[in-house]
Design goal:
By secondary structure, the chain is of the alpha/beta class. It is 32% helix and 16% strand. It has 8 helices and 10 strands.
């Protein structure tokens, strides 16, 4: 795991955008894995700026979102189908039909999960998957206790996750209790994982995922088993890392870092 400690969320956004831009430019048909929530927003903001001001094109790209709530009406503003368009893809030149989300309104949710995994495979697999990490260590909606080999499936959201997401709704009572999420096994098939975390509230989860044992108790720890992971954190999110000084030293002495 390449761990890069950066001075602020803005810098995390710029370095994360560098990695996205390289993926987009180096692949004739880049397949991008998109996460929702607040963690990726600095990256998305910088990519939108580069598209508008520098001509970075996503016209050849295809994108797959990580998860979707179950039970929200189609078109609900806080569905992840709508959220990713509102904050990111509608500001780019990627075709709306090339942005895919799990179908949380399907009549047969388990079948929809299986079909989603197959659609990712049919696209050639994900080249770059951006991920946040929850305060309890979850990746996507894979809560503690999730199988490390899990596929896209129905999950029950913990009260911690519902509380974390309540800021997007009128009250916690409006936050759905179930979601359709890519499983950890599905996520691990992406060729490059880009994990971003900022703020003191993520410090414990970052340390557990990066330096703790690989365990279902911290789903994010499965990333340690992936051959190509970049973890971008600001100073606050790095506060609990036991080896923080070593990570800072490696970064400071690696001018070729852009080749990650």
């Amino acid at each position: 795991m390449e761990i890069v400690i950066l001075p602020s969320a803005d810098v995390v956004g710029k370095v994360g955008a560098d990695i996205f831009e390289r993926t987009v430019r180096e692949n004739a048909h880049p397949v991008l894995g998109l996460a929702t929530g607040s963690s990726p927003l600095p990256v998305y903001t910088e990519l939108i700026r580069r598209h508008r001001e520098e001509g970075l094109s996503f016209a050849a790209a295809e994108a797959f979102c990580l998860d979707e709530y179950i039970g929200l009406p189609v078109g609900h503003p806080e569905s992840y189908h709508q959220f990713i368009r509102r904050v990111f893809t509608s500001h780019l030149d990627i075709a709306d039909t090339a942005v895919h989300s799990p179908d949380g309104a399907a009549d047969d949710i388990p079948a929809a999960g299986r079909a989603y995994d197959e659609s990712i495979k049919a696209a050639g697999g994900v080249d770059l998957q951006i991920l946040g990490i929850g305060t309890n260590g979850h990746l996507a909606f894979n809560e503690p206790g999730s199988s490390l080999a899990s596929r896209t499936r129905i999950v029950t959201l913990t009260e911690q996750t519902r509380s974390d997401n309540a800021r997007f709704f009128d009250s916690i009572d409006d936050v759905p209790r179930y979601a359709l999420t890519q499983g950890l096994g599905t996520v691990m098939e992406a060729r490059h994982l880009l994990i971003v975390a900022t703020g003191a509230g993520k410090a414990a989860a970052v340390a557990a995922a990066a330096e703790g044992p690989v365990t279902a108790s911290c789903p994010g720890s499965i990333a340690q088993m992936h051959p190509h992971v970049t973890l971008l954190v600001d100073e606050d999110a790095a506060a609990d890392l036991a080896n923080a000084e070593r990570y800072r030293y490696v970064f400071a002495n690696k001018p070729e870092w852009q080749a990650l």
